Amino acid sequence: MSRITIDGIEIDAPEGWTVLETARFLGLEIPTLCYVEGLSPWGGCRLCTVEIGQGERTKLVTACTYPVEEGLVVRTATKRVVEARKLILELLIAQCPTSKRLQDLAAQMGVQEVRFKPKWENCIYCGLCVRMCEEQMMAKALGFVDRGNKLRISTPFDKSSEECRRCGGCMYICPACTLRCEGAQPEEVLCGRCESSTQPTCLEVHDNYACWMGLTGDCGTCVKEGAEK
């Protein structure tokens, strides 16, 4: 066991636990994207960034990959941490504005603008599909190809893989495969419609309630243009 402190709470964390696992055990919310329970932690998206250390000797680390250690001091919601997460989310949304998962996170975290030119790509390179295929489906039909701005995910030699079982696991777990909840007609890259709960329900626009904010009708943010007139 290692005695650590998270947001002022002291806890004896079992050896082998990560900061994220310990925080969740305490009920502390840390946003994640590339982390899914049951898959190996990767730390690629960095949305789970937290601040460790004290005084001037602090640094930002990914909670999903950082192991607990004796005397560790962690803060999960400092100004530095929140600003870092928002910046990371801006970059991710600029990469793939159509991801509903990213748009929901932006509303949840209070992101008001995206200051980067949108690329409108269909992948954020979180690696979830690769890990799902290898670790849960035991297929290894997907992998990363090239580096830098040429990085992409593909099958070996860009050909149909004989290892692929057409299970759909890669699409099921992909945060970029689901279209964003557009409401009426979003004018900017950032949808932002899930921020307010004062509008009529999104069920007036969509057949199904598909937002993160609660039970059907609790949110009520997607409104057809001129619906209130």
Features:
iron-sulfur cluster binding, 7 strands, Ubiquitin-like (UB roll), alpha+beta, 5 helices, two-stranded antiparallel sheet, NADH_UbQ_OxRdtase_75kDa_su_CS, iron, 5-stranded mixed sheet, Alpha-Beta Plaits, 229 residues, 14% strand, disordered C terminus
Q: What report would you give on this structure?
A:
The protein is an alpha+beta fold and 229 residues long. Among the domains are: 2-77, Ubiquitin-like (UB roll); 128-173, Alpha-Beta Plaits, CATH 3.30.70. 21% of the residues lie in helices and 14% in strands. The protein contains five helices and seven strands; from the N terminus they run E-E-H-E-E-E-H-H-H-E-E-H. The chain has helices spanning 19-25, 79-95, 100-109, 128-136, 169-173, and strands at residues 2-6, 9-13, 49-54, 57-62, 73-75, 143-145, 152-154. A five-stranded mixed sheet has the order 2-1-5-3-4, sandwiched between helices. The longest helix has 17 residues, at 79-95. The relative contact order is 0.12.
The CATH class name of the domain at 2-77 reads Alpha Beta
Identify the CATH architecture of the domain at 2-77.
Roll
Sheet with the most strands? Answer: 5 strands, mixed
Give the SSE order as H and E letters. EEHEEEHHHEEH
Strand content: 5-15%
